[in-house]
Amino acid sequence: DGKPVSLSPLESQPHSPRYTASSQRERESLEVRVREVEEENRALRKQLSLAQARGPAHHRANHSKTYSMEEGTGDSESLRAGIVAGNSSECGQQPVVEKCETIHVAIVCAGYNASRDVVTLVKSVLFHRRNPLHFHLIADAIAKQILATLFQTWMVPAVRIDFYDADELKSEVSWIPNKHYSGIYGLMKLVLTKTLPSNLERVIVLDTDITFATDIAELWAVFHKFKGQQVLGLVENQSDWYLGNLWKNHRPWPALGRGYNTGVILLLLDKLRKMKWEQMWRLTAERELMSMLSTSLADQDIFNAVIKQNPFLVYQLPCFWNVQLSDHTRSEQCYRDVSDLKVIHWNSPKKLRVKNKHVEFFRNLYLTFLEYDGNLLRRELFGCPSEADINSENLQKQLSELDEDDLCYEFRRERFTVHRTHLYFLHYEYEPAADNTDVTLVAQLSMDRLQMLEAICKHWEGPISLALYLSDAEAQQFLRYAQGSEVLMSRHNIGYHIVYKEGQFYPVNLLRNVAMKHISTSYMFLSDIDFLPMYGLYEYLRKSVIQLDLANTKKALIVPAFETLRYRLSFPKSKAELLSMLDMGTLFTFRYHVWTKGHAPTNFAKWRTATTPYRVEWEADFEPYVVIRKDCPEYDRRFVGFGWNKVAHIMELDAQEYEFTVLPNAYMIHMPHAPSFDITKFRSNKQYRICLKTLKEEFQQDMSRHYGFAALKYLTAENNS
């Protein structure tokens, strides 16, 4: 009855398929198998529901509650006894989770890397779940910013997120010396009884390096099996760590037998509070630290020391609820078949590189969720009322007002599409210069422009904010690319913000807005990914900011744009060298051959001899690249793909009376590349061009309404052009 039991192999099923590792085919078949199991479970639940509906009255009363059954128990003997007896009628009496019962999950998360791990964990939970979920995230400021934006833009039905400030909890555990790589945050599970709401009775606590292979409701159902004073549900540790025999003079903290692993914990919070858990663990930690001096495995050492003194607190979970893949793991004794797996725990600092004879299979399961399209997890839970979400309601209202028969419906719809966004996908660390002159380069890109990043880094040493439009799988390709690049890994002042793909258009102005919004400097250089700035431009712009008093004037500083048709270019190191290349035909003014109007107002003839900044006037279709204060207007989201996305922004700057000033010793050069998918659509699709013209006219009308008489010149200029 929930007494500690030894780690023993599960009975293997004779007809279950055996695992053979290391092929892509297996990974694909695993995905198919997951869906098959999902369908089988759904059919089984339907049969059970029908059977109960036909059964006695007390069975019918449970009809609405029948949902998922806990397959494992903490008492392997009683489980085997039930099998031997063949008592299938007991099935309906096993603990169940009500259909719409909310499952509470607590996770401690700090920093950029842990935030990425949490997403994969959450995906695996969402994939299998049938119940509303309430995530309680104990997060530092970085993780909160990342995950709050992610969940807000993910908009998954029947999922609630609450944040608790991990930095405020530091004082509760900072007195405990800890050698574990998780640092101070690895001790915070100890204070959950104090941190989580006082009316929350129970919670599943998970490490960020967990992957679910089953419905989390099955684990939630185990709470019904707790008896007496059992308040902690834990799986036995699957290594010899606490036995103290891993190396000479190895001296672990005290533990009951092998001890328990705290990667997955069931906490009965109400009972723990009544038992004065806070006092219990503190006294134990103080006593043990007198001889141990520090923890080696963070909170796990203290949990085990408490359990050693109070073994009655533990309900031992079957080992498949926490299959531990550490270096010295004995986890393979825990499973004989794929169907036995429920939770995988990458509890080694090496993570996916850990040595394990089945690691290829586990890695493929993990990668399935890592690269899984998160948009597909926006599934409604039928029959379970969702809490009213004002953002979702506003979105539905805006979409309902659109005419689906409009030939430009897809263009208009994109303006309201909410794209899942993961800010600061990689580590970011930058403090702007104290003189308040710092400038961030802002750009957006998709996977086909990734090769430009290293070159830009070599030309621009200042901070960069990038919005990347990627699928989930592409985001992982980008991660591998970045981690394998010495140039990118040596830079911590680049903010990489992933905007996940959705819809048929490239949301260029949304991407620009995301990159603009998340800069930490007062000024930004609005560039494009295909341009290389001149060497030294960063320092030149910082000086120009002071010289032209950008802090107190509404100016947009123009960096003249040029282009080359050569893939291999000896980049000019000075204005004189650039002018020489211009004369020789190695360089051209940007879009000189196809769209002269876009940059003609820059007045390149004047720039050739200019030694001081000079002012130019706005003209129709002007789209220069500018340096501007961060409080400038956003880009208009109605323009997607190719056409008018920058023109509209420059027009709005002019309407707000920004002064356009050309910098005499600045330049940028556009590097050649294959035409984008969107420009190809623009050139080949007549309807695309018609819709762009319609959106342009509507934008100009909106400008007239918003800025009044002064904006009439934009209509006139358009008619004259």
UniProtKB/TrEMBL annotation:
One GO molecular-function entry: glucuronosyltransferase activity
Membrane topology qualifier: Single-pass type II membrane protein
Chain intervals with Polar residues compositional bias: 9-23
Compartments reported by the entry: Golgi apparatus membrane
The keyword Transferase belongs to this UniProt entry's keyword annotation: yes
Stated family: In the N-terminal section; belongs to the glycosyltransferase 8 family. In the C-terminal section; belongs to the glycosyltransferase 49 family.
Keywords attached to this entry: Glycoprotein, Glycosyltransferase, Golgi apparatus, Membrane, Multifunctional enzyme, Signal-anchor, Transferase, Transmembrane, Transmembrane helix
SUPFAM superfamilies for this protein: Nucleotide-diphospho-sugar transferases
Coarse class of the protein's main subcellular location: Golgi
Cited Pfam families: Glyco_transf_49, Glyco_transf_8
Region (Disordered): 1-33, 49-75
Highest taxon, organism lineage: Eukaryota
Catalysed conversion reaction: 3-O-{beta-D-GlcA-(1->[3)-alpha-D-Xyl-(1->3)-beta-D-GlcA-(1->](n)-4)-beta-D-Xyl-(1->4)-Rib-ol-P-Rib-ol-P-3-beta-D-GalNAc-(1->3)-beta-D-GlcNAc-(1->4)-O-6-P-alpha-D-Man}-L-Thr-[protein] + UDP-alpha-D-xylose = 3-O-{(1->[3)-alpha-D-Xyl-(1->3)-beta-D-GlcA-(1->](n+1)-4)-beta-D-Xyl-(1->4)-Rib-ol-P-Rib-ol-P-3-beta-D-GalNAc-(1->3)-beta-D-GlcNAc-(1->4)-O-6-P-alpha-D-Man}-L-Thr-[protein] + UDP + H(+); 3-O-[beta-D-GlcA-(1->3)-beta-D-Xyl-(1->4)-Rib-ol-P-Rib-ol-P-3-beta-D-GalNAc-(1->3)-beta-D-GlcNAc-(1->4)-(O-6-P-alpha-D-Man)]-Thr-[protein] + UDP-alpha-D-xylose = 3-O-[alpha-D-Xyl-(1->3)-beta-D-GlcA-(1->4)-beta-D-Xyl-(1->4)-Rib-ol-P-Rib-ol-P-3-beta-D-GalNAc-(1->3)-beta-D-GlcNAc-(1->4)-(O-6-P-alpha-D-Man)]-Thr-[protein] + UDP + H(+); 3-O-{(1->[3)-alpha-D-Xyl-(1->3)-beta-D-GlcA-(1->](n)-4)-beta-D-Xyl-(1->4)-Rib-ol-P-Rib-ol-P-3-beta-D-GalNAc-(1->3)-beta-D-GlcNAc-(1->4)-O-6-P-alpha-D-Man}-L-Thr-[protein] + UDP-alpha-D-glucuronate = 3-O-{beta-D-GlcA-(1->[3)-alpha-D-Xyl-(1->3)-beta-D-GlcA-(1->](n)-4)-beta-D-Xyl-(1->4)-Rib-ol-P-Rib-ol-P-3-beta-D-GalNAc-(1->3)-beta-D-GlcNAc-(1->4)-O-6-P-alpha-D-Man}-L-Thr-[protein] + UDP + H(+)
Phylogenetic classification of the source organism: Eukaryota, Metazoa, Chordata, Craniata, Vertebrata
Recorded GO CC terms: Golgi membrane
Protein name (record): LARG1 glucuronyltransferase
A biological-process GO annotation: protein O-linked glycosylation via mannose
Record pathway: Protein modification; protein glycosylation
InterPro entries per record: Glyco_trans_8, Nucleotide-diphossugar_trans, Xyl/GlcA_transferase
